[in-house]
Automatic annotation (TrEMBL):
GO molecular function, one term: transcription cis-regulatory region binding
Source domain of life: Eukaryota
Location within or outside the cell: Nucleus
Name listed for the protein in its UniProt record: WRKY domain-containing protein
Pfam families given in the database record: WRKY
Signal peptide: none
Biological source species: Turnera subulata
UniProt family annotation: Belongs to the WRKY group III family.
Region described as Disordered: spans on this chain: 66-105
Polar residues: bias regions: 80-89
Keyword terms: DNA-binding, Nucleus, Transcription, Transcription regulation
Domain WRKY residue range list: 127-190
UniProt-listed GO biological process terms: leaf senescence; response to hydrogen peroxide; response to ozone; response to salicylic acid
Residue ranges, compositional bias (Basic and acidic residues): 90-105
DNA sequence: CCCATTTGACCTTG
DNA sequence: CAAGGTCAAATGGG
């Protein structure tokens, strides 16, 4: 996992090129009176991110192991074979012992799984119910009232858990104050082939979100498709998931990859809505194949908390189908990541029609959120 | 009838 | 021990 293989190298180069591209864009912006200040700042931010990414890549490739053990003293992990877990989620109820141990292992692993948080804001004015779907299919397995929180927290796990042993899970909690904001905590990385880039694999039409299959790896292509989709309005926002994953993988840095990808290849985008907040958000369809590739190529490793917390806002309105394929030698690799870092992003979900079947009222998984029709959206000061 | 969600019990963690 | 997280039987929708 740690060595810099061709892939990483490629990514590195790719990233550098990206940075260059961004710089060029910035230059254009500087010369263009029409460019907004936000847009420029955005670019600057992205450039910085790009640098950071590169740096992290470089540093990580040389010293990952250390990080791992180092981190939080959770040195465990990594090696065990999750396979046992995966294979059969749980034994019958009969065996206590077995169950216990299994449980425990799982738990342990759980602890060392990467964890990152994202805040998604659903824009009331828009499609409302459909907050974004991150491109993965999840199955709810529990809900719990949390102490102090007005809203219950929903627990989701990857739909393919049993089949592929994918241990990714996420927790969704609606913010107390602002019902349009959801805190989503992801844990573990998807090892399933859910968002397979090109896997023609057997996709069942029935499933709502299968997205991605037809996407190409070619970034441009990808982008185009997205645009397209956008108009269609259905979809999910892809990137965040990726990003998250991505950053997680990058261990150290990662801070805002998201944002940067977001626009890389589509500089001047203009979005329909003009609400104030929207403007401050980055709205392009964020998908980046770049990210994807990126992340794929990285294997997990330890990550260290970035020196500065990063926050990004997105306006999620587009779909996302991101696909990432993974090429880890073994699916289990990701379990090795030691500690979690907390990254927070706020995504502003503008819309998104949901195809999710159910629309829950009290829970807000991703595809179903409901809010106050009357809610007015004024943009709270986002954080920096 | 199948499958995702619901929900209360059970288990882990701090 | 309380709070949080997960399991799995029951429930409900398609």
């Amino acid at each position: 996992m740690a060595k810099m293989g061709d892939w990483e190298q490629k990514n590195l180069i790719h990233e550098l090129k990206l940075g260059m591209e961004l710089a060029k864009q910035l230059q254009l912006h500087l010369n263009s009176p029409s460019s907004s200040r936000e847009a420029r700042e955005m670019l600057v931010q992205k450039i910085q991110d790009s640098y950071q990414k590169v740096l992290s890549m470089l540093s990580s490739s040389s010293s990952m192991v250390d990080h791992q053990t180092h981190n939080a003293g959770v040195g465990i992990g990594m090696s065990e074979s999750p396979s046992s877990l995966n294979g059969s989620p749980r034994s019958e109820d009969s065996d206590r012992d077995l169950k216990d141990t299994e449980y425990r292992d799982a738990t342990k692993k759980r602890n060392c799984m990467p964890r990152w948080t994202k805040q998604v804001r659903v824009n009331p004015g828009m499609g409302l119910e459909g907050p974004l779907d991150d491109g993965f299919s999840w199955r709810k397995y529990g809900q719990k009232d949390i102490l102090g929180a007005k809203h219950p927290r929903g627990y989701y796990r990857c739909t393919h858990r049993n089949v592929q042993g994918c241990l990714a899970t996420k927790q969704v909690q609606r913010s107390d104050e602002d019902p349009t904001i959801f805190d989503i905590t992801y844990r573990g990385k998807h090892t399933c082939s859910q968002a397979p880039e090109i896997l023609p694999q057997t996709r069942q039409p029935s499933e709502n979100q299968e997205q991605n299959t037809n996407i190409n790896i070619d970034p441009h292509h990808f982008y185009q498709q997205h645009q397209h989709q956008q108009t269609l309005q259905e979809n999910k926002l892809p990137s965040q998931e990726l990003l998250s994953t991505f950053r997680r993988d990058l261990k150290v840095i990662t801070q805002d990859l998201d944002s940067h990808q977001t626009e890389l290849q589509f500089p001047p985008f203009h979005f329909p809505s003009t609400s104030a907040d929207q403007n401050r958000v980055i709205s392009p369809p964020m998908v980046d194949s770049t990210a994807t590739t990126f992340m794929e190529s990285f294997s997990p490793s330890a990550f260290m908390p970035p020196s500065s917390a990063s926050t990004s806002y997105f306006s999620a309105s587009s779909s996302g189908v991101l696909h990432h394929h993974y090429n880890y030698g073994s699916p289990n690799q990701n379990l090795q990541i030691p500690e979690a870092t907390g990254h927070h992003h706020i995504i502003s979900a503008a819309t998104s029609a949901t195809n999710s079947p159910s629309i829950g009222i009290n829970d807000f998984p991703f595809g179903n959120v409901e809010f106050d029709p009357n809610f007015t959206f004024d943009n709270p000061g986002f954080l920096h």
